[in-house]
């Protein structure tokens, strides 16, 4: 039998130690947040920005810049978008190695992810929902999006998959892309240029049908102070649905004349709400 190389044995040993919980290390994201916190005197929570479907962490870039300039430690992780349970578990593990108090911010489907990932974590001091799903236990993002009229995701209520979405099968599931021809209308309410919309459509991250259809298992907003930004021009999640969810959660709510991608068109509004959440819950 051929023995493995020392480097491979070391890698396998390290992986086993991490799995067993005997090694705790900061991820590069968490390390960057820790360094920022140290520079600000350790008095501020880490702001965790969680993207949703048809976007990625780069969508938070302007908000990240504003928060970092103000001295806030920030991380914006990439969400797998493969299933609510697995996505929430992924985020929960990242939170475990991110020291200090936390404020979680979710956009769109990211709202469902933070709702479940924060459950039972007493270091989460606030949840901020940005044109986002705020599900109760047993509810899915897809069901909540269909609860009220106003979404442009489909022009055929009977269609098994919304007509604005392009299904792409993969081994184990189906990814859903927002069609390029629909992207500017549905995601941006035609508020950004055609050229900018085309770039965002080309670089979007798809979500699986499992992610959008899987029921939420726990609702952290029942015990954690919540804040919500309702996008009045949203054509993805109906504004009426956003108001319903925010009111049910008892969230401190503001509204903006903005599309679903409010973090792209109105980043300053998003940052003001985040800073308010930090101030009022610290």
TrEMBL record:
| Keywords of the record | Signal
Q: Matching InterPro entries, A to Z?
A: AB_hydrolase_1 (IPR000073), AB_hydrolase_fold (IPR029058), Sec-Metab_Biosynth_Hydrolase (IPR052897), TAT_signal (IPR006311)
Instruction: Please report the stretch or stretches of sequence annotated as the AB hydrolase-1 domain.
Output: 47-272
**Cross-referenced SUPFAM superfamilies:** alpha/beta-Hydrolases
Q: Coiled-coil intervals in this record?
A: none
What Gene3D superfamilies does the database record attribute to this sequence? alpha/beta hydrolase
Q: Which residues form the signal peptide?
A: 1-25
Q: Is-annotated flag, keyword Secreted?
A: no
Q: Protein name, please? A: Secreted protein
Q: Which domain of life is it from?
A: Bacteria
* One term of GO molecular function: catalytic activity
């Amino acid at each position: 039998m051929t023995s493995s190389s020392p480097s491979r044995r070391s890698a396998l040993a390290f992986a086993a130690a991490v799995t067993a919980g005997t090694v705790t290390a900061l991820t590069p994201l968490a390390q960057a947040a820790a360094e920022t916190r140290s520079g600000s005197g350790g008095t501020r929570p880490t702001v965790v920005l969680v993207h949703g479907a048809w976007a990625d962490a780069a969508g938070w870039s302007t908000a990240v810049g504003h928060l970092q300039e103000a001295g806030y430690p920030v991380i914006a992780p990439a969400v797998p978008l493969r299933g609510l349970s697995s996505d929430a578990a992924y985020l929960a593990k990242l939170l475990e190695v991110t020291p200090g108090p936390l404020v979680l911010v979710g956009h769109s489907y990211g709202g469902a992810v933070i709702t479940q990932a924060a459950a039972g974590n007493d270091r989460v001091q606030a949840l901020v929902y940005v044109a986002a799903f705020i599900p109760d236990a047993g509810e899915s993002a897809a069901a909540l999006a269909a609860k009220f009229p106003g979404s442009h995701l489909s022009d055929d209520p009977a269609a098994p998959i919304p007509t604005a979405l392009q299904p792409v099968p993969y081994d184990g599931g189906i990814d859903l892309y927002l069609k390029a021809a629909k992207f500017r209308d549905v995601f941006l309410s035609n508020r950004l240029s055609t050229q900018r919309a085309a770039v965002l459509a080309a670089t979007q991250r798809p979500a699986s049908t499992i992610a959008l259809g899987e029921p939420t298992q726990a609702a952290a907003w029942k015990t954690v102070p919540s804040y919500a930004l309702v996008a009045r021009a949203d054509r993805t999640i109906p504004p009426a649905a956003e108001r319903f969810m925010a009111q049910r959660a008892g969230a401190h709510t503001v509204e903006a004349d903005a599309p679903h991608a409010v973090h792209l068109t109105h980043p300053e509004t998003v940052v003001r709400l985040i800073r308010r959440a930090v101030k009022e819950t610290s």
